[in-house]
Amino acid sequence: MSKHYGAIAFTEAVRDVQRDHGSHAFYDRKRVQGTAVPGSDALTEDEKDYLAERDSFYLATVSETGWPYVQFRGSPIGFLRVVDDHTIGWADFRGNLQYISTGNVAGDNRVALIATDYLHRRRLKIYGHARVVAAEQDPTLVGSFADPAYDAVVERVVLVTVEAFDWNCPQHITERFTVEELDTYLAPLRGQLAALRAENAQLREKLDRGE
Known about the structure:
- This protein has seven helices and seven strands.
- About 40% of the residues lie in helices and about 30% in strands.
- A seven-stranded antiparallel β-sheet has the order 2-1-5-6-7-4-3.
- α2 (about 10-20) packs antiparallel against α3.
- It has three domains: about 1-40, no CATH class; about 40-170, Electron Transport, Fmn-binding Protein, Chain A (Pnp Oxidase, Chain A, Roll); about 175-210.
- By secondary structure, it is an alpha+beta fold.
- The chain is extended.
- This is Flavodoxin reductases (Ferredoxin-NADPH reductases) family 1.
- It holds the Pfam family PNPOx_N.
């Protein structure tokens, strides 16, 4: 948990619930630590490496009606980039043309991200302030986030100034595997299966010849 995470997440209502369940004293120390130090929290190499390996994350924004909106963002590994110690960003591709997240950020730039590694049961939560840069505003920047190997139109880039972050407990993260991750485990088995099929074919040929 970064220094300022508790100052953002542990509101009075949250602290009341923590008191009810006996975790108030433990987390209040982290909250006080964050309020005593001005500024935002810098990403360490652990967070940078982790984010660079993600192929998806969940983005939460807040609408003018006060309702939260959560959207899935996914693309080939590398689309979520660490710009510097305090900034992450990603290419925003053309989608269903609802633009809810983009519109919400225009009214309230506070966002939250959850990036999950299901294979290793790890989860990183991030608080930050988002800024949307359209292609017509800065074509060079937006173009730099494009992936030539991925056939999608980049309409804008979203840059998030990180305020705080926290690594979550893996206890209830369900293991899931991508096709690429499964291929790593299945490749040796496929090789063994192919060898057994070849061996069976040779044995059948021998039987057919009466050997």
